[in-house]
DNA sequence: CGTATTATTGACTCCATTCAAAGATAGTGG
DNA sequence: CCACTATCTTTGAATGGAGTCAATAATACG
């Protein structure tokens, strides 16, 4: 009973600490109020549990509230390919837009809570709230840009890919109020490899090389970045 | 004067031979009539001319009427990366959805004619024609799927990438009423390399290998596919 | 017909993968 | 609390696929 009340309060986007990052970012106060009425707070997941699986029916656009997730596709050889990493305030589910079936799976990388803008309401809501439609288009556009950027980046040498990945994480953590120079990788070496198109050994060796060069300090999943400009130089 | 009349007639989607492939595919007859009123027929382009350039303001969603185009991003080293190839009836421009600026350039690969659904009308039209909004979402979803598929495929060996590329072209030509076993590549070896993340020499060698294996016959840009199932086996 | 672009082919090189083994960490249950 | 196991990470050595360099050939174009 109390839990339900708390949920009702927390799910209001205007009370959410992520309102400057998440869907509300591009919406007016009134518009946020209206989408708040249909946004559903979903149950918390543990590492390894899925937000949705490839082939699932599209149920709605999701927003990470806390924790991180990976967006993956499995190939015919049983290898996992990580298309993207999702941080709090980021949206996912757009891969379900075509054919109303998801073409990717979304898996929690750690304890994760999230919200859902149900598919049923999405269309009606877009008609009533033009700002929402614009935001949906903008977000899909950003996803497209991310993917094409990824296609380009994956052709570069291991050193550049990893440098770009670290800086990208750093900047995204920073925008969420975390430190940009010290954070924990939400991924294993294997997963970083899957994301960057490298063998896990290559990731390990490359991290060590950055450390030997004094650019970073690696301690298992903990990363300290000492020289952001130098790291950026490697791929810019 | 006469030209203008012809244009007015041709631009009506219901009279267009591509109406089963292009935007009209997912729309009712009435809906097609309504979008026809705002669709603009654009002037014909020659090889190398651009439909839009990276950084350009988003002006609308485009549809290829005849000819082919490439969607590219240039990296910091002046290398061109081909994100996608566009055939008649296919839509492009979605990379302009975020920030109202294009993040890619679209360049004609041969003489090309195309239509435009202007950005100004897009939003109002989506509000009036729910089917159009659904179609826009579906198309962006398909673009996302294509890109993530590309990310996965680009990690595979050269042989698989090229086989998949040839079969993909074959099937898309087929859907447009062309032969699936004989067609002209709209790309140079260099461009195929740029698309598949390979050196042009690798493309050339790999094509020769397929030919030596009796899978295809290559004659400059002309390709004859002799054994589609075997070619598919290489990557499935 | 000459020039520029595009394609083929060979030889060499190198970056990243693969294979292999050892070391470290976290989680589990006795 | 510690042993035990599974998972993850590091490091080395060898291999190989594709890139680079270079020269030639073929084609398209003005």
In short:
2 copies of one chain form a homodimer. With 236 residues, chain A is of the alpha+beta class.
CATH topology of the largest domain in chain A: Jelly Rolls
Return the CATH architecture of the largest domain in chain A: Sandwich
Which class of secondary structure composition applies to the elements of chain A?
alpha+beta
The run of helices and strands of chain A is HHEEEEEEEEHHHEHHEEH
Q: Percent of residues of chain A in beta strands?
A: 15-25%
Strand order across the largest sheet of chain A: 1-8-3-6
Low-confidence stretches of chain A: none
Mean pLDDT of chain A: 93
The chain pair with the largest interface is: A-B, 39 and 39 residues
Distance between the termini of chain A: 54 Å
How many DSSP-defined strands of chain A? 11
Number of helices of chain A: 8
How much helix, percentage-wise, in residues of chain A?
Answer: 40-55%
* Number of self-contained structural domains of chain A: 2
Radius of gyration of chain A: 19 Å
- Oligomer type: homodimer
**Shape verdict of chain A:** globular
